[in-house]
Design goal:
Length: 136
C-alpha cells in the first residue's frame, strides 16, 4: 500500500505536513489515536480537495483572464457553487472596511443588514484596481 511506503520515510507522496494534520485531527475531542494510514489518507484527500477547489475556481472565475487565481475567485466559488457552499463562512466576499462600517451602522439603525447591488459593483471595481496595484 502507498501508506506503507510512507512509513518507510518517503514523505513525497503528500505535500502537506503530516505533523500539522495530526495536530488538527487530535484537536477533535472524539479522536484519541490516529492510525498512520488514516493520517496519510486524510492528508491526500485534503490535497486533492484543495487542488479541485483551486482548479474549479480558476476555471469559473475572473482569474482565468489574468492567468492567476485570486481570493475573489475562491470566495465567488464558495458563494455560487452548491458543492462549495459550506465554505462560504470561511471564504467570505472581501469588502472594504468603509462598506462594513456602513453596514454595521445600518444594522444598528434598522435592525437588519441590507446589501445594495450598486455598492457591490463599485466595490468590485475598486477591488480590481487594488489587485492591479498590488501586482505592479
Amino acid at each position: 500500500m502507498a501508506a506503507a511506503r510512507l512509513s518507510g520515510g518517503d514523505n513525497r507522496l503528500v505535500s502537506l505536513p503530516l505533523s500539522r494534520i495530526r495536530v488538527i485531527m487530535k484537536s477533535s475531542p472524539e479522536v484519541s489515536s490516529i492510525n498512520q494510514d488514516a493520517l496519510f489518507l486524510t492528508a491526500k484527500a485534503t490535497e486533492l480537495f484543495v487542488q479541485y477547489l483551486a482548479t474549479y475556481s480558476y476555471k469559473h472565475g475572473r482569474g482565468k483572464e489574468k492567468r492567476s487565481l485570486t481570493y475573489s475567485d475562491l470566495s465567488h466559488t464558495a458563494e455560487e457553487s452548491e458543492t462549495f457552499q459550506f465554505l462560504a463562512d470561511i471564504l467570505p466576499k472581501k469588502i472594504l472596511a468603509s462598506k462594513y462600517l456602513k453596514m454595521l451602522e445600518r444594522e444598528k439603525r434598522d435592525g437588519k443588514v441590507e446589501d445594495d447591488e450598486e455598492d457591490e459593483d463599485d466595490d468590485d471595481k475598486e477591488e480590481e484596481s487594488e489587485e492591479e496595484d498590488d501586482e505592479s
